[in-house]
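Structure ticket #2291
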Amino acid sequence: MAVQTVIEAVREAMREEMRRDDKVFVMGEDVGKRGGVFLSTQGFIEEFGESRVINTPLAEASIMGIALGAAFRGLRPIPEVQFSDFLWPSVNQLVGEAARVCYGTDGNLPVPMVVRIPYGGGIRGGLFHSQNVEALFFHTPGLKVVAPATPYDAKGLLKSAIRDNNPVIFLEHKKTYRMVRGEVPEAEYLLPIGIADVKRAGSTLTLVSYGLMLHYCLEAAEVVSAEGIDVEVVDLRSLRPLDKATILESVKKTGKLMVVHEDNLTGGVGAEVAAVAADEAFEYLDGPVTRLCGPDIPTMPFAQTLEDAYLPNTEKIAEALRKLAAY
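Resolution: structure written out below.
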């Protein structure tokens, strides 16, 4: 085992897959000599050369269009969107094309591409460097959506995504890049896409989250454990496919459910998780299904006080857990 940060795990996953399969290549803004704005491709151009580490212009629609064409030709591109906020020009290529081609060709034209997207707040990125974009892709059949929270999960899921024949939106929370450290096996391993992970077992209530918020949920669960509230924390890891079985198994055990994410409340992943519980575990519920999410405002504020007010945190989650446990 080696202790790594999330960004180190992401880098190693890509490096291993590029060494294993010469059809895998990376492309994006500043991914070459600079090694990416977050250094996720540091050292790649020296090892793999300019034909497999492709610097692109500031043109997200073109980045995704080229990646899509390469995937059609049997290559395995990993296009990087420098910040989630910049991906909107590429939405037609992703939602209108990549998500539909395999279905539209009766499975004859797979789209093996992984779109890496740094996302989320908590780093004082302001209005145009902090957006959460998962709900758009979560709503789109034909795309897989992955949102790991730990180095172990990031590496194992990214390697699986690169080998997958479907387009995968791979969401990496920027604040976890160097804040979160954890053990990662030195031997090769893969993690299946679409399987959630119970990060903390408990019996009082179920707390579901993903990405950065998972770590605040784990902290909050420890805080309230001293008060006799035993929280089970489920890390979705993959948003689409959504692991309904793990969610329902936990809810049936605890009888209560809370979902936490920093994306806007309305129409988010939490709404679907709540609907699943209401549809398929209603008779087991002993309290209301609750959500603690970002407010319905257009984007993340820049001012520290306003960003703090926007984001769920350990204290906010702990208080919400106390309220739900009291039912």
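Closing remark: The chain is about 40% helix and 20% strand.
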